[in-house]
User: Fold this.
Amino acid sequence: MSPAFPSYRRTRLYTTLHWERAGCLRQRFSESQKVAMHLAQLLPEHCKDAKAVDCAIDVFRQYEDRLAGMDACRAEFERWQHWCSRLEPQQRSNSISGALALFDATLFPNMRTVLKIFATLPVTTCTAERSFSALRLVKTHLRPTMGNNRLTGLALLSVHKTVKQNYDSLIAEYMSKFSTRARLTE
Assistant:
């Protein structure tokens, strides 16, 4: 008596699902994602760790077209480590904005560039997905000729629904821009 679903089919299905999941994980944790994780090692709180130098080199390689050169970046990172080690523990920031506010851009121009890149990287893709979903709701097939300014404004209103608007000032601004319209208050 054979089972309804033979074991070789179960094994084949399991293997296929396993390799598909492994491919998704490889894609999720690609090289660019690893470099983004390495950027966190450049913050003052973590830059004194042993693996921070290797992480810094990976980051400098990834963004070398925006930086002053690999040797200059390495030397600047060594100065950065020395400077961060002299900070008091309460001064060492674990945030990007704190690190950017902490030092002078003329002393560490490459580190500032790298930290600015780190500040602009999205943590997840949900923000981008949310804006595309809002865009899909706003720009329907009924509104194909909508201009970019109006589309941007409607998408922002759709995404940021919790922001309270002062409608009286909006109406007054609209009336001042388009004075040829008939005014109802007169």
Observations:
- The radius of gyration is 26 Å.
- The chain has two domains: 31-120, 126-177.
- The longest helix spans residues 7-28.
